[in-house]
Amino acid sequence: MIDQPQRVEAFKAEIAEMSLPDPASGRDRLLLRAGGALMALGVVLMPVAYVMSHDTLNALQQRDAQVVAIMGLVFAVVGGALFLRYSLAQFLRFWLARLSWEQQAQTDRLVDAVRADPAPVPAARPTATTPTKAAAPAKGAPAKPAGAKAPTPPRKASGGPKATPKPDRPQVDTTG
Amino acid sequence: MTTVPSVGATGVGGVGGEPGPEPLLELRGLRAGYDGIDVLHGVDLVVHPGRVVAVLGPNGAGKSTTLKVLAGLHPASAGDIMVAGRRVNGARPDDLARRGLCLIPEGRGIFPNLTVRENLWMMTHRGPSMADVEEQAAARFPQLGRFMAQTAGTLSGGQQQMLAMARGLATAPALLVLDELSMGLAPIIVDQLYEVVAQVAAEGTSILLVEQFARIVMDVADDAAVMVQGRIVQTGRPRDLEASLSQAYLGG
C-alpha cells in the first residue's frame, strides 16, 4: 500500500516542477506565419500589377495597377518585418539560453578546478628567489583562477630553485 | 427550470465550513464548450486530500466535460484549474497523468486488441514492475487474474471496467478521477466496483467521481455536488442532497 500523505507531497512537488506551455508562444507562431503569408502575397501582387499596367493603355487602369503594386510592396515590407521579428525572437531566445548555459558551464568548470586544488598558485607565493613586485600578490587579493597562466619567473643563469607549476594541477580549458 | 439554491465559490470539499488542508484540486469559474457553444458556465469545485467527492447530475449536465477539462483533454475557455496549488490550464494530459492525476474515462479506454496482461504492461512506464502491477490487479480484482492472456475486447463490460480501474490504480494515483463507472453494467458488478472504490478511498487516495445514478455513490462519497446545465447548483453531504437531486433530475 502507498503511504498517501507522502504520495500527496510527491504529487505536489511534481506538479510544482511541471513545465507548462507558454500561451505567448502560440501567438508568436501565428504572427510568424501571418508575416510569411503577407510577404508572399506582396511578392505575388507586384508582378500582377506590372502585368495589369502593361496590358492596357487606359491611364485609369494603370493607376489602379500602381495602387495594387504599392499595396504589394506594403504587404511585402510589413510581412517581412513581422516574419523577421518573430523568427528573430525565436532565434534570440535560443541564443540567450545557449549563452547563459555556456556561462554556467564555464563557472562550474572554474569552481571545480578551484575546489580540486585550493592551494595558492605557486607563482603567486612569495619566495626568496622571486621577490619581484609583479609576482607578489596584493594582500587580500583573490586566488587566481585555475588554468590561468602564471607569470614567468625571471630566468637565472645558474640552477636555482625554479617556480614551476605543480605537476598534479588539473589542466583546465577556460577558453570555453 | 430548477429552483435549487445556488452555491458560492467555496464549492465542495471542506463541507460545512471545515478548514481543510490545501486542496488537491480546485476549479474556479471554469468555462468550456464545444464549437463556440458554452457547456460549462463557471464551475467551482474543490477536492481536498483524502476526500471522495461525487459530482451528480442528469445526462448532459456537463459532468464529463468538467472531467475532460481538468484532465487536460479539452481546453477551458475561462476560469482556473488549480492542481496542488498550481494553475495548470493548458497542461498536457500525459504530463498530468504521469504525475498522478489519473482519469478513468467513460467507456473504459482500454486497448481492446491487446491482452489483459499487455494492457497492464502499459502502466509499467511510471516505474512499477510488471509483477507488482499484476499482483495488485489480481488482489483487487481476482476475476482479472484468470483472464491475463485473453484479449481485452472479448471481456464482459464489468471485466473491462475492472481492467480500466486496475490500470489506473497501478499508477498509484494521487487523485483518481472516475467518469460514470456504472455505465452499462449490471447492478451486482457496479456494487463490486464501488467496493473497490471504497477500499481505495479508505487507503487515503483522493477521488473525484461523476455519476448519473446518484444512489450508488451515497455510501462512498464524503461530499457531493449537484450539477445542472453546466453549473454546480448545490454542494453538501450526499444524504443532505437527496431532495435537490430529485429537483435536478425531475426538474420539479
Summarize the structure.
Chain A has helices at 4-17, 23-54, 59-116.
- How many β strands of chain A by DSSP? 0
Strand order of the largest sheet of chain B: 6-7-8-3-9-10
SSE string of chain A, helix = H, strand = E? HHH
Apparent shape of chain A: elongated
Q: Describe it for me?
A:
The complex is a heterodimer of chains A (176) and B (252). Chain A is 59% helix and 0% strand. Chain A is mainly α and 176 residues long. In chain A, helix 2 packs antiparallel against helix 3. Chain B is α/β, with parallel strands linked by helices. Chain B is built from 9 helices and 10 strands. The N terminus of chain B is likely disordered. Classes of the chains: A mainly alpha (176), B alpha/beta (252). Chains A and B meet through helix 1 of A and helix 2 of B.
List the helices and strands and how they pair.
The complex is a heterodimer of chains A (176) and B (252).
Chain A: H1 4-17, H2 23-54, H3 59-116
Helix pairs in contact in A: 2-3
Chain B: E1 25-34, E2 37-47, E3 52-56, H1 63-70, E4 78-83, E5 86-87, H2 93-99, E6 101-104, H3 116-121, H4 130-140, H5 142-145, H6 157-170, E7 175-179, H7 187-202, E8 206-211, H8 214-217, E9 223-228, E10 231-236, H9 242-250
Parallel strand pairs in B: 3-8, 3-9, 6-7, 7-8
Antiparallel strand pairs in B: 1-2, 1-4, 4-5, 9-10
